Amino acid sequence: MSSPVVLLVDDEVPFVEALAKRLGKRDLTVMSAFSGNDALEVLAKEPKIDIVILDVKMPGMDGIDTLREIKKAYPLVEVIMLTGHATVETAIDGMKLGAFDYLMKPCEIDKLMHKVKEAKDKKRTHEEKIRQARISEIVTRGRG
Amino acid sequence: MEATEYYRTLTRRMVTSIMLVSFLPLLLFGGIVGYQFQTSYREKTIDHLRELVQKHEQNIDAFLYEKLSYIRVMAQHNSLKDLSNEQFLEKRLLTLQNIYGGVFVDLGVVDFDGHQIAYAGPFQLMKANYSDADWFKEAINCEYSISNVFLGLRNQPHFIVTAKRESDGRQWVLRATIDFVAFNSLVENLRIGETGSAFIMNRQGEFQTTPHVKPSRGNDFFLRVLKESSESTTSTPLVVGGLPDSGPAATGGVPLSSVTVTEDVDFFGDGLIYVMSPLKNNDWILVFQQGSKDAFKDLYQARRLALLILFGGCLAIGIQVVVITRRMVRRIKWGDSERDKMNEQVIEAGKLASVGELAAGIAHEINNPVAVMVEEAGWIDDILSEPDFPTDENLDELKRALTQIRTQGARCKEITHKLLSFARKTDPHEHEVDINELMDEIISLCEQRARYSNVKINRNFASDLPRVLASPSELQQVFLNLINNGVDAIGANGGTVEITTRSENKYVVVDVADTGAGIPKVNLGRIFDPFFTTKPVGKGTGLGLSICYGIIKKLDGQISVNSAVGMGTTFHVRIPFSQQQKD
């Protein structure tokens, strides 16, 4: 079982760096991007990314737009929203758009880790189902 | 000060313009009509006087010439011999006196030397010599004459009519004395009003009758006026010289313009009207004088009344204008001040909103650095927790400091989150809300402030309350307002705010009761009005309760208030159960 690959997206560079180090220390493979566009580029290059941790409030392309793009291009990638209190409603909108969950900034590292694991599990289960479906399709075709 | 000046100017301008447009036409109209009326009335009055004077002049002339004609007839038809007979003369006088009353006083025949040949009458004038008398000089020169009034030999005012005759080779004169009193009464009868009276004067300016009122001017004044008048009206044929045979008829033919009217001012400055007409073939002048006041009495009375009404009307209009204008300006002033107050409140509300936004912005901006700090502290903690990190006696101290940083970071986070939740725009989405939970949350927000004001907040919650369907942030606003109002009402002396929740007839009821000052009855009906506040300007927007009212009404709920001054105030908020619970 491979460790989850996480993409951290926030315009606040020191926050991304600190959090990346902490998550890395907890056996996650962490990549980082500092804007919505950056995030999409990184995702295009790295198909292994499982989970995106996305700040809702960013200059330029904001969290919700980025989320929409990610879900369009990579439906299997899970997204965890990070938000200040004022934007809880936005985070809820995000969940309606397919985000896995949301957390309030600044967050407890343990909580975040917990969410990441849940997301990874969900993704794995999901991929497993897809694989099963493919196999059964191939088997059916073989029989036919 | 400037504002007062502005309103004063406004009042002045309004009063001036209204008065101008109301008085000007009134005065113009009054002036024009009054002038026209006065002019025509004066003309009418003066014409009336002219006619009157002329009629009298004709009467007097007729009187004089009648007497004269009689004497002439007597002289013509009787011989000197007959007339010299005193008995005959006596009889004649008696006849005359029978016909004319006491007008003829005596009769006499005078020869050309001035000796009276015969006499009939009450006086003993038989042998009188008239050769030096003015009238006699005139009499012997003319065929007939009427003398001026004079005192004569008997020292009584009288005048004499004479007729000259030549018979039996002698020239003689028949004379008759006309009683002055009888003649005077003719003129005296000409009385109009209180001051109108007449007198006669001759061309030498001597009075021929007793003037009832002493004329204001010397007699030469009248002579001059009459002369000027006759000169200016050259068309008027002046009968000079020999008297026509039909004397009265001739004078009757004198045109109206021979009557002269002039006005003058007497010693007291009162106007006088003089109407003059020549008499007795221009020898005498009949002068009628009357005070203008008296002559135009009706006119002046009407004018006085009109002026009184005009003055009264203007006064009434003026007072009314001032009163109404004052009232209007007061209203304008009130409206202006209300508007200003409203503006202040709107600005205040706007300020509050922008302060809220600013606070939210700051909170959000601070939140990010705090997040970084907390993460960095966490990272240090991670490093320190590595098993191969050299143990040191300071390590524990370091860890304690880190924990402190994280704790304080968490505190910062809490503060910013509270600020954000308070200042953010209300979320109108309705959820099922547990009122007790909501109230707990709100009370925790208010408690800090209440503690400063020495106010205790008591909770008295009913357990297992049904949920209500409402926007939590809106309800939060409502109760935050009510509780804050309660705390404000209590003031510095301390007290309690009791919050009770209960259910009643499908409603959740929340009572917020304070032990504050209470609301006076006059204000009780207005407390939910927008912008109604009893707090000093700048302290309250007057919007709080009206917003509460709006929110609760929107939820189909009710908000009501009980208050007693000195006892405190209780607000009751009723919110209906959510639909699911109702069913």
UniProtKB/TrEMBL annotation, chain A:
The modification 4-aspartylphosphate is found at residue 55. Residues 109-136 form a coiled coil. One of its GO terms (cellular component) is cytosol. The keyword Phosphoprotein applies. GO terms for molecular function: phosphorelay response regulator activity; transcription cis-regulatory region binding. Pfam families: Response_reg. Transmembrane segments: none annotated. Keywords: Coiled coil, DNA-binding, Phosphoprotein, Transcription, Transcription regulation, Two-component regulatory system. One of its GO terms (biological process) is regulation of DNA-templated transcription. Residues 5-120 form the Response regulatory domain. PANTHER family: PHOSPHATE REGULON TRANSCRIPTIONAL REGULATORY PROTEIN PHOB (PTHR48111:SF40), REGULATOR OF RPOS (PTHR48111). This is Response regulator receiver domain protein. It comes from uncultured Desulfobacterium sp.
UniProtKB/TrEMBL annotation, chain B:
It is found in: Cell membrane. It comes from uncultured Desulfobacterium sp. It is an enzyme of class 2 (transferase). This is histidine kinase. Keywords: ATP-binding, Cell membrane, Kinase, Membrane, Nucleotide-binding, Phosphoprotein, Transferase, Transmembrane, Transmembrane helix, Two-component regulatory system. The chain crosses the membrane at residues 18-37, 305-324. It catalyses: ATP + protein L-histidine = ADP + protein N-phospho-L-histidine. InterPro entries: dCache_1, HATPase_C_sf, HATPase_dom, His_kinase_dom, HisK_dim/P_dom, HisK_dim/P_sf, Sig_transdc_His_kin-like_C. Residues 361-579 form the Histidine kinase domain. It is a multi-pass membrane protein.
